[in-house]
Specification:
alpha+beta, six-stranded mixed beta sheet
Length: 184
């Protein structure tokens, strides 16, 4: 699920800035679909800029066609602790959670007790960190770092904080704290 879709689901059409959870080939498509002439900005963590810029190499490795046009450059970079006004009455706190990628970000919608960790945390699992056979992603993930990020940034949130991950079922921080075998 991308944040653009999530926002439209919860709040309907509004002026927004798409915020990247992390940069890999499969996660860049929302930026291509978005009409940036409408005033939206592309925001991401600077540590993922190299991955974002290597989309053609990732296309080669995944055997998919490259984008027809170059990806728009980011308008600004997000850092841990940044608060973004995402809609007129909605702010998002940015949590830098490296591990899946160097610039992986989790977005915390505090007013709704909801986080969107992308591919950092899943129901019963954590994000992929092994990219064997995919040269363009070699060395971009770290299994110890992803677990440390989750423990220090996400498991500090309230048990009833909902987790809407990049794939799979929704869960909660309490459920993951109690049952996720990767976080023991």
């Amino acid at each position: 699920i991308d944040l653009l879709s999530l926002g439209l689901f919860f709040w309907g059409p509004f002026h927004l800035s798409p915020m990247s959870v992390h940069e890999r080939l499969l996660d860049c498509s929302p930026f291509q679909r978005l009409d940036c002439s409408q005033g939206a900005e592309i925001l991401m963590n600077q540590n993922d800029l190299g991955l974002y810029e290597k989309v053609n190499e990732q296309c080669r490795d995944f055997r998919v066609p490259p984008p027809l046009t170059a990806l728009a450059p980011p308008d600004a970079f997000l850092a841990d602790g940044d608060v973004v006004q995402w809609a007129p009455d909605l702010t998002v706190r940015c949590l830098h959670c490296p591990g899946h990628t160097p610039g992986s970000m989790t977005y915390y919608f505090e007013q709704h007790k909801l986080i969107c960790p992308g591919d950092t945390l899943f129901a019963g699992s954590v994000g992929r960190t092994n990219w064997t056979g995919i040269p363009s992603l070699q060395g971009t993930s770290d299994s110890q770092q992803i677990v440390a990020s989750i423990k220090s940034k996400l498991l500090t949130l309230a048990d009833d904080t909902r987790v809407i991950s990049g794939h799979g079922e929704a869960t909660s921080i309490g459920q993951e704290r109690a049952t996720n075998r990767f976080l023991r």
